[in-house]
Write a structure and sequence with these properties.
Number of helices of chain A: 6
Largest sheet of chain B: 4 strands, antiparallel
Order of helices and strands of chain B: EEHEEHHHHHHHHHHHHHHHHHHH
Number of domains of chain B: 3
CATH class of chain A: Alpha Beta
Order of helices and strands of chain A: EEEHHEEEEEHEEHHHE
Mean pLDDT of chain A: 88
Distance between the termini of chain B: 51 Å
Mean pLDDT of chain B: 82
CATH topology of chain A: Phosphatase 2c, domain 1
Shape of chain B: globular
Number of strands of chain B: 4
Low-confidence stretches of chain B: 69-93, 123-127
CATH architecture of chain A: 4-Layer Sandwich
Oligomer: heterodimer
Structural class of chain A: alpha+beta
Structural class of chain B: mainly alpha
Helix content of chain A: 25-40%
CATH superfamily of chain A: PPM-type phosphatase domain
Distance between the termini of chain A: 4 Å
Radius of gyration of chain A: 17 Å
Largest interface: A-B, 36 and 36 residues
Number of strands of chain A: 11
Strand content of chain B: under 5%
Strand content of chain A: 25-35%
Helix content of chain B: 40-55%
Low-confidence stretches of chain A: none
Largest sheet of chain A: 6 strands, antiparallel
Strand order of the largest sheet of chain B: 2-1-3-4
Number of domains of chain A: 1
Amino acid sequence: MHIDMSGCSDVGRKRKNNQDSMYFDSVQGLVVVADGIGGKKGGEIASRIAVEGIRSDFLKTDYIRHEEIPVFLTNAVDRVNKDILHYTDQHPDKKGMGTTLNCLMFVSDTLYLAHLGDSRTYLFYKDNLWQLTLDHNVQTFLKRGWLNKDSVGNNPKESALVRSLGIPGGVEPDIYQLKIRPDEIFITCSDGLYGMVPDEAILSIVSKYSTNISGLAKILVAEANKNGGQDNVTVVVSKVCA
Amino acid sequence: MSRLYLVRKNLELYLGPMDIMEFKEGYKKLKFGPDAEICSSLKKWVKLSDHQRLASRYPQIASIVSRAAIWEQSMAPVQIRDDHAIRSHFPRKQSSFFFYGISFLIIALVIIGVWGYKEGIFSFSHKKINTQVVTQLLSQKKEVEFLKYMESHIAVIVPDASKHKTSYTEWIPYIRYYAYKKGGSVVGMKPQLLRGAVPSTLAPQDCSMEGLRSKLGEELQTDWKAILHGSETPSTIFQKMFFWDPYWIKIRVDPSWIQPINYYQACLIELSQVIKQDQFIIPTDVKPILEARVDHLLSTISPKQQGFRFESIKPKVVPTNILGALSCIEEDGDSEVCIPKDSLAVPATKYLAVRKQRMDIFSMLSSIVIKEAILSEELSELYTLRANIKPIDQITQFNYSSEYQLITYMQHTSGSIKDSKKMMEQSSPEINLK
């Protein structure tokens, strides 16, 4: 099996700068998408540190066994978190900056997915679409009973992040595993996509253009902008080919 | 568009996509259990144990889950004897066909009767084999007599329990009691029937001494020193057993177990014997560490300490490896003492920090449940601890959602522990809150 990828990142229609960052390499089987948080370009810096850090750690690794990958990902995420915090120590005006993270590693017949925040990865297969990642926001945590309503105040912003990079004290990413098969398509995106394009529409577009992977990411980004483009939007599409 | 489902185990491992038949097969083969979640395209995730939501959102799935029972899994009846071997061959003569036919029938009936009596099927004494006898023996603490009774009737009990759901349900607690006094196996009963509904991702499929010995045999290449140092994460179920949380185990009761209290304790009992008896596979300098760890696990789960109780012992020895550190934490040691950062790899210290926080949650909950009172600061602290720690343990895959749910109930009932316990009894009856 091999992976075909395409990616696109856009500032959107309303924002002045793009705080999203992405990296993908179909030969290496690595995808990283990060959506930065924080004013004064802090979000842009944080997301770039995250993407560069994961990419750099990955490229330094010669050989890694399957059972070591979750540990590798946890360590890599922890390192970039420290890098972000170190940066804010050096630049106090950027205090509070952070970023989400979705990192996909395709290793042999398995996908390993490290996730923090509310960027998402979807799985498309035979006209079905599933959201693989759990949003680390107030809404999800309240629904699952992992957060107490009192602890979030009277009118909590449901989209507020509960977990992300840039938090002191360490972070623990979700690490998912999935055996991959040909014709599966993974759509990794920042909230700029699903905030503007409902899941049903994402399914419809991917279904229509599933044989045109090279253009699919751009098509999804265009759809988000067509619907308002309120936020930066980044999409990386990975298709498993026989 | 064919309807496909994705199953998620422990919020980490995805299985599928699969169609309904593949789901049925997977559920039957215990590839995933009630703790798993399921989702179809564009729909919401639902836990397989959430019968109400499952029935309303995925009725076909709910129907499979509700029908499935361990005893219905692929089970060929135990072949005690091949009846087709009992055949007579008489030379045929037309004139005496009727005579010989009747003779054959009579002889066959006699042989079947004798065989059936020997097997106890037609024996009058079979009518006396019921659980009343064994229940009485155990209530009178006559364990020796109980084991003798089981020994003499096991050849009848096991086939009956293997074939009939009612008999299985009735007898399995006693079969298990008997089996785990005899090395963890019973002739004629498949390991999965002894195991019950415990997922194979959490515990070995076969925790008999033989089963665990064969698992140990696969560990020849294990770098135990790297695992003890924390530079290598345990990857096999066998290795993960040493990382089990005894408090998670001891509060999980199952009415189909009398002794041991559940499958996990049963596995540890047999594991202890396997390690003690091993002479070739575990390195000699590693063996005492593994033995000590299993002894600690068993003593923490022991009958004297059953229930939602946290025993603070205050360890005396500073650990030098990850298993010693775990035992130290479980004895209520401080992080500074229990987590020797100089002796352990960074991933190990991180993992231990998480285990320590889970231990803090448990010890607080234990104190609150026993006192039946909670302060608002305590509830707030519990929420903070819970939000920081995932409900699924990274190594053991033990799921702490039920413990977390108790905290939610405490909030919903404005700190009424009695009401919280009642709610827990309904939603999570497997948790022993006494």
